[in-house]
Amino acid sequence: MKNNTKHTIILGVICTLLAAAASWYTITFNDSRLIVPMDLSEYVFRVQDLPMIISGILITLYVLYLFVLLVKAIDTKKKIEKTSQFARAVSPKLGFLGFAGFLGFWTYSIDKTIFPFIFFMFFGYFGFFYEGKMSHTFMDERYKENKLKAHTTANKIALAIIFLALLILGQGKLMENLEYTLIAFIIVTALSIALEVFLSEYLLYRYDHDEPFEKSEE
Q: Which of residues 66 and 107 earns the better pLDDT score?
């Protein structure tokens, strides 16, 4: 598990450095092509575009890899909870994968596609910092109640944010632009999902650690 976490973080750092190097090369030697907004219908391939194209493909593959890891982690967690009396062992270092969410900030400027804003969901990975602290915790009745309470609270907050976004953005064009309206809704939804994933683990950690202290005061 530790080796997988280390390798995943190293891959993320490598992809980030390659993207930074490709951007510097393009800005310096290739007239900032594929960085500044451009009409893709008139795009003509140049060999000098390869660094940006390759770095973009690598980042996309890395994000897909993170998504697969997230799905596997959720599936593994469910299986362990059904067969074990202890919380699964997770390295808190997995929380560093949450920085993958920042990939959504700069990719829109490359080709004006709105899909990269979905990357903001990966901010939810920061929840691994707290899940890692709960590794091997005995899942007694109090733990299960706290977990249900944490998930319920996190779900309510995320759904409330999405509901408000629907009410506000559904009134009409944001800044008189339908594209900006869609972008805003995607960002709010992605961040709400990330918040739900993060809060589920954070609140469980807080409930588990705060309640004994509160009871001792009584």
A: 66
